[in-house]
Write a structure and sequence with these properties.
The structure is a homodimer. Chain A is α/β, with parallel strands linked by helices. Chain A is built from 12 helices and 9 strands. In chain A, the strands form 2 sheets. The first copy, chain A, has a 6-stranded parallel β-sheet. Chain A has a 3-stranded mixed β-sheet with strand order 7-8-9, with helices on one face.
Chain lengths: 312, 312
């Protein structure tokens, strides 16, 4: 057991999943949770993935050895500022946000001496949100990236990184350490831009005049529906991601658009060879992802068709 | 039984799935298959989803009551021209291609009198291809769109449409009838542009200098991997789709890019409200697709994490 008492600040998908896995694998003596919404607090206690709940973030963090910030990225800075005076010397503060440089910038200045900020990002999630969406296996076999803050080379800091690494490994994850800026670039292409274009095409499809929305829904099995899963992700979380990783997202989006223009031109000028070459190359990437255990090899993700819901 | 003898021209994902479902539900007395490749022909017989196989498309079509063209769109015109002289009066010729106007243009001029061309498109598939990829349940609860040819209002033609409708319904599908041009527009947004942007982002990610391909693969669970599934689809099939539905694809792609520019601008100018509004609207579309039975409601498509393949 690396941490006796864990504080979960925010009880959505990641917070609740952490609560479940900590209990299931007995990774702490007690888990205390904070959520802004009364309904979420009540539900979290009812489900039982935390032992105590509070509406006061400082009180939640106060006695904890590990504080995990599981709120949308946009409010992490404010919460850190709020809880900072209550933090116990020797405690480790981490987060699960999808951007890292902004978190470091917004949080590090508030950190008291003797408390260790080790930002983190478990590469795991689903399109669902809220305290009911969590499950203990969420982190199983997924990568978790830790981004130690610059100039934190002390032995005690390294110990904090090791303790947090051991914690995530106990949750089932594999852990990598990376520079925050590089993390933001990697995630811009593997996560942020994919989400942006998924949101975008679903929006485009909804706004057409010549194709009805009902048609888009009926015939979505032809490719579109895969995008709608991603485009059903939490709006607040994703708004904050884009606002807080602006430079890397715009850089990667620029590359995407440039490549898309080339494809557009290939279609316009009947350049079948260019299309065929790209479509062949992309198959190999898929194979590598399946081989790396990051996706299932089952066709169609192993989905089976489901009958339409009866109108009640 | 609507058709005594069915000819499957092309034995890939759709052809093999049709063979399986026809046998399983006893929808024909015999199924004969054509494939260009010797290996595919041998494999099809071995799996047993056809009763006879031939390397001669005309011989395959000759005695059939229903001829289903299951080849890539790009060669359908040539095959129709080749088999046309052998077609039996009263037989129905259909196809399963993802574009319809080009099929009508390329095929209708070759049709002999008394043979009925009823183009079709089952909205079903996986990212897999070849004779091993088929399964009988592929069409279950999926839409199949028939696009009767213009000026084919005779009673006999309508009977051919009804027979083909009954056939697809027996395969498990729900059938819609649509104008070919409208089909191409609907599929451009629900299928062709989604595939294009999936291929595109996978290509972009593979070509980056500042992010290694190994990183893209490791951290793909953050969104990217969903796109790689679609971008693993058959290259020949998709090249032909884009070359044969150029106008509709370019129109829809234009809309997509226009909307993407607006999002890009919202990020650059910190317009969180615009982002939040879009991200909220898109959730509803997802719900409608799940309610319509066109996707599973299980988080993450019900995928479970899989351990990485051991290096051997």
């Amino acid at each position: 057991m690396n941490f006796e008492r864990v504080a979960l600040i925010g009880l959505g998908l990641i917070g609740s999943s952490l609560g479940h896995v900590i209990h299931q694998k007995k990774l702490a003596k007690s888990v205390v949770g904070y959520a802004r919404s009364k309904a979420t607090r009540a539900r979290a206690l009812e489900i039982g993935f935390i032992d105590e709940v509070t509406a006061d973030a400082s009180a939640c963090a106060k006695e904890a050895d590990l504080i995990v910030l599981c709120t949308p990225v946009g409010i992490i800075g404010d919460i850190v500022k709020e809880i900072a005076p209550s933090l116990k010397p020797g405690s480790v503060v981490t987060d699960v946000g999808s951007v890292k440089s902004a978190i470091v910038e917004q949080s590090l200045p508030h950190m008291p001496d003797g408390v260790f900020l080790v930002p983190g990002h478990p590469i795991a999630g689903t399109e669902q949100s809220g305290p009911d969406s969590g499950f203990a296996e969420l982190f199983e076999n997924r990568w978790c990236i830790l981004t130690p803050v610059p100039d934190a080379q002390s032995e005690e800091y390294q110990t904090a990184v090791s303790r947090l690494t051991a914690f995530w490994e106990a949750c089932g994850s594999r852990v990598d350490v990376m520079d925050p800026k590089h993390h933001d670039l990697v995630l811009a292409i593997t996560s942020h831009v994919p989400h942006l274009i998924a949101y975008n095409i679903v929006g485009t499809a909804a706004d057409l005049e010549r194709v009805a929305q009902a048609e888009v829904i009926k015939y979505s099995a032809s490719g579109f529906r895969d995008f709608t899963r991603i485009a059903a992700s939490d709006p607040t979380m994703w708004r904050d991601v884009f606002l807080n990783n602006k430079d890397a997202v715009l850089e990667m989006l620029g590359r995407f658009v440039e490549d898309l223009s080339a494809l557009q031109r290939a279609i316009r000028w009947d350049d079948g060879e260019a299309l065929f070459d790209l479509f062949t190359r992309t198959r190999q990437i898929r194979r590598s992802i399946v081989e790396a255990g990051q996706d299932t090899a089952e066709p169609d993700f192993g989905r089976h068709s489901t009958p339409p819901k009866e109108k009640s």
